[in-house]
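Lab notebook, bench 4. We co-purified these components, and the gel suggests they stay together. Before we commit to crystallization screens, I want a quick structural picture of the whole thing.
Request: model the full complex, all chains together.
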Amino acid sequence: MTEPARLEPPVTEEAEPFWDATRRQELALPWCRHCQRPFWYPRPVCPTCLSPDVEWRPSSGRGQVYAVSVMHRPSNPSMAERVPYAVALIDLDDGVRMMSNVVGVEAERVEVGMDVTLTWEPLSDGRHLPLFAPVV
Amino acid sequence: MVREALDDAGLALTDVDALFASGEAMGLAEFLGIQPRWLDSTMTGGSSFEFHVQHAAAAIALGLCDVAVSVYASTPHSDSKRARSRPGGPGGGPGGGGGWRPMGPYPAMAWELPYGLRMPIGAYALAASRHMAQFGTTSEQLAQIAVSTREWATRNPRARFREPLTIDEVLASEYICTPLHKLGCCLRTDGAGAFVMASAERARHLAKPPVYVLGVGSAASHSIISQMPDLTVTATSVAGGIAFDMAGIEHRDVDLLMLYDSFTITTLLLIEDLGFCKKGEGGPFAEDGKLGPVGSLPTNTHGGGLSYTHPGMYGIFLLVEAARQVRGEAGDRQLPRCDVAVASGSGGVLSAMSTCVLGSEAAL
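Here is the predicted assembly.
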């Protein structure tokens, strides 16, 4: 089934490497070379030490659901046909937390603590949006 | 509203030399035709007015101003009715006139908005989901908070909802974002409020007995919900401690709790973070109805954002009700004794938190 177009995020300068990687369906995370830790979301400096020495490393793409809410009403018209859908905060094994959707399962069955793995949804310009699905 | 607050205090507009508004202080000063020497547009969402109390107290203590006014007015209910009556409906899409900004007010929201989290309720729903999974908090326990708050609202002639409510009714109301039911969410009303602050010395000679600011604390932990370090712990755990220490009070001293109740989970988190029970025990703590009129910890006596009013930035109504209770002006819902009231605001999505301890002359 083709999903309707959703809200597409802009490509900001600090996030360009992230979006470029999604064209290859690779999840890249910004790492601070000074702290030797990843951070999320992409910023021009590390939010722990403010170092501008940031590099991009591939993510494992695995994680767990930290919190989840099922939308019974859409947040905006582009999501209307997806209701009900699960919005979750995902704790990646890499050590960062990001918001995403958990797909490939009935929304009501998504639970806190569920193991999930990366999947992708194409955007209109060749980029992809990272989503997650239960580990089978 | 400014005139009503000044009349209540026995002051005139010409006495005002400090003006506070959540984002619009400069324009408001011009509108009122005054030239304040302290101008404060601190906008932290719903907690803005608790922050204003903190800033006004500091400015007055430093002699930087004498009479401060903070005011809020908003008409989202009427605005949406007007929007619905226009051709094309209430908007909700690009250019639709609903105030919908594709990427939100903060650039970082680009990392959340594509996923369709309904705001602000979805952020609180995530917090509730985490609290339930981590601590076993139940939907019934959350619903009890709405029920207790409604019990208070039945005593407030100005409350939007005044019919008694049951847990079953809350649980039968529709899900908007699980695990939150519609009746566990705040209203969307028109509303306005204002307060006047002056030094204790000056306030003693004004029209009404003063309500003293005994302590204030603020803290902030994030802006967007995916950056909140722990969805079960708000920065009120810091702000409340600062306020209680400054006031020199213990929990048993508190006669009234005014807790921001945008959603039932907000109240529950604030009870825990202020230390009225241990972290994670807010559900069992509230489930016996102790927050209601026959309970041991009167909370949100005007009916709260859940049943009285919620025009958007609701924090001003916490302060107004606290002042009314301390002064004995709360009518049918008046507490037999109210010498110490705690007003704890939440702004953003559990982001910027501020707690005020207010009290009567007897509490000094």
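Chain A touches chain B at residues 6-10, 12, 40-41, 66-79, 82, 85, 87-89, 97-101, 108, 111-113, 129 (CB under 8 Å). Worth comparing against the SEC data before the next meeting. The two ends of chain A are 21 Å apart (CA to CA).
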